[in-house]
Amino acid sequence: MGAFRQDRATGVFGYLGRKPRLIPVRLDLQPEKGRPRHYAFDIVEDPFLAPYLLYAALNGVLSSEEKDYGEVALNYKEGSTIKVAGEEEIALKNLFSGELATQYTSGIVAFLAQVLLNNEYRPVHVEGINLILGFSDERRTARLERAWLSKDHVHAGETVELSVVIKPFRGPEVTRPIDIEVPAEVPPGRLLLQVGDGVALARAEEGEDDDFSPRDLKQLIWLINHIRSNDKVYAVLTRSDNGIVFQGERLPNLPPSIAQVMVRPQTRGNYLRLGYRGVAEETIDTPYMLTGYKLLSIDVEE
Questions:
Q1: What span, in angstroms and rounded, lies between the C-alpha atoms of 264 and 167?
Q2: Could you give the CA distance from residue 178 to residue 163 in angstroms, rounded to a whole number?
Q3: What average pLDDT does this structure show over 2-30?
Q4: Cβ neighbours of residue 191 closer than 8 Å, sequence gap 6 or more
């Protein structure tokens, strides 16, 4: 692979050595009103340059074709992918609305390109980036107002109905039901039910240690594919746990003596202490970029 350098005589930047690979980028812009538009361009597959070039190109197209500022909504549609040679495809899924929607939409793709090209495990070849973007010339945001359960005392194996109230921007409240089954193997005790948007759930689930990282490229891509999106209501049922994630492997519900030995207070390493463990998760799709978080509890009886 050649190196990107500046020629001292001419001041021109260019590549020395073998010609670099290019990443083909294909963009389909599908507005609610008007005809779809298609764009195609290539960017150099350079760990430093590619993210900046990708962001600049995408943001430039979206700004020129739609709106630089104002209320817009952009969402990745099915078929939006980043293809990495020899690995699982990365499926892009999210919705952004508001004055910074174009920047966020472009920035997410650029950030993922940076993560992949600069990963610590091995060099990768990005075979292509395919983006299918839906566009709406309006604000599509909503807030999670309330959430409640049909009952808060259940037996293992029962299904409980969760009701959530969503308040769209300048729109009437909407109530949506979510059925949550309590797993049959859950022992008696209290379960916590976290209800909210993807960002709020990610913040609530942050561990006590910041040193945990994927153990290889395959796991990194798996984690990227399981990032929660902004346009769903997530309902995550959790129980207290004494486990850890060690070297990328989850070791749930360890005896206290073993957990204490494996994770000593003075140790710093590739582990993550787990105070809670998810036992069930349900979602519902919405046409909005959601915000909000509620915490409920369920008592599992004998």
A1: 46
A2: 6
A3: 69
A4: 182, 237, 238, 239, 279, 297, 298, 299, 300
Q: Tell me, yes or no, whether 160 and 240 share the same domain.
A: yes
Residues 61 and 192 occupy one common structural domain? no
Given this model, what pLDDT does residue 114 score? 96
Query: What's the domain count of the chain?
Result: 2
Report residue 160: phi and psi, to 5°.
Answer: -115, 145
Residues 175 and 82 in one domain: no
Q: Give the separation between CA 38 and CA 136, rounded to whole angstroms.
A: 17
How far out from the chain centre does Cα 119 lie? 18
Other beta carbons within 10 Å of 279:
16
Which residues pair with residue 234 across a beta bridge?
196, 283
Distance in angstroms (rounded) separating the CA atoms of residues 91 and 187: 36
Which residue, 89, 110, 136, sits at the end of a domain? 136
Shared domain check, 275 and 127: no
229 has pLDDT over 80: yes
Domain that holds residue 125: 3-136
Classify residue 268 by its DSSP letter.
-
The whole-number pLDDT of residue 76 equals 96
283 vs 229: CA distance, rounded Å: 11
Which residue, of 116, 136, 156, is where some domain finishes?
Answer: 136
Amino acid found at 44: V
Partners of residue 143 on adjacent β-strands: 167, 291
Check whether residue 157 and residue 34 sit in a common domain: no
Rounded to whole angstroms, the Cα distance separating 191 from 176 reads 22
Give the dihedral of Cα atoms 130, 101, 74, 165; nearest 10 deg: 130
Residues 277 and 146 in one domain: yes
CA-based nearest residue to 200, from 250, 234, 160, 238: 234
